[in-house]
Amino acid sequence: MHDVLPDIENWRAQGEQVAIATVISMIGSAPRLPGAKLAVSEKGEIAGSVSGGCVEPAVIHAAHQVIKSGQPQLLEFGISEADNLEKIGLSCGGTIRVFVERLDW
């Protein structure tokens, strides 16, 4: 959280809404460990990372939805044999669950 906190404080000081995405679990190989965070401002600025880039666009999209609605989302990303290669997933073959919530403080 320390790596994204200065950006969050700056955005909040400017009156912006902010969502934070947190890796809450992983199975197998994944680029970030549980606890990794990605913060997103309502203007689209980002800080941190939950995946090293492979699923970040989908997480950022969900964060914007959460900022607007106030409703948290639980996302899961991974690749199974049934998935096609065009589906968003982790190229490393693992699975992560990401919780996205709006910061209302």
TrEMBL record:
InterPro entries: MoCofactor_Util/Proc, XdhC_CoxI. Pfam families: XdhC_CoxI (PF02625). Residues 11-78 form the XdhC- CoxI domain. This is XdhC- CoxI domain-containing protein.
